[in-house]
Write a structure and sequence with these properties.
Layout lengths: L1 E3 L11 H5 L1 E6 L4 E6 L2 E5 L7 E7 L4 H8 L2 E6 L5 H9 L7 H5 L3 E4 L2 E4 L4 E12 L10 H5 L7 E12 L2
Length: about 170
């Protein structure tokens, strides 16, 4: 992997989450976990160009949430041409119950001790800047809560400053 200038990247920010999906990783070289994310945003907040951010959503019961809560960084590993089967598995199984990375043939790699997925096409290394849990009273569109949160397990929202982008050599 090599470092890339974020201003020179070319991809569709509207489909990178919803169609390509990503693996959110958090932890360190002694313990890490990854999960599939298909809801999220890439953009800018609290500043202009050079303050690129990611926003990811994590349900409270997800095993990865414990890792992201205790670390300053998380990563988003993007696979542009495939790995859909592996990403589906990573989203449907918990690292709490077994080694889902091995089950998918995936491995961690590390940048400055921060885990990401080896073989990814692109990796966003993000420093956490903000976290909050979605609240039922904030939903304005009828049906959103009943469709997406029948158990009222509202996502935690993490905003991270994109500190570095790695791309395949």
């Amino acid at each position: 992997m090599k470092e890339a200038n974020i201003e020179e990247l070319s991809f569709n920010p509207f489909t990178i989450f919803s169609e390509k999906w990503m693996l959110l990783c958090a932890g360190d070289e002694t313990a890490a976990n990854a999960m599939t994310v298909s809801w999220g945003h890439l953009g800018s907040i609290w500043g202009g160009l050079g303050n690129a951010t990611s926003i990811v959503y994590v349900r409270p019961q997800r095993y990865t949430r414990g890792f992201i809560e205790t670390k300053d960084f998380y990563t988003l590993s993007v696979f542009l041409d495939g790995k859909r089967k592996e990403l589906a598995y990573m989203g449907a199984h918990s690292g709490r119950d077994g080694d889902k990375m091995s089950a998918c043939g995936l491995e961690y790699a590390y940048e400055d001790g921060i885990p990401y997925i080896k073989g990814a096409d692109m990796v966003f290394i993000c420093r956490k800047q903000y976290v909050s849990q979605l609240k039922e009273e904030g939903f304005l569109s009828p049906g959103t809560v009943s469709r997406n949160y029948p158990d009222r397990d509202f996502h935690y929202v993490y905003v991270g400053n994109i500190e570095k982008v790695l791309v395949k050599d």
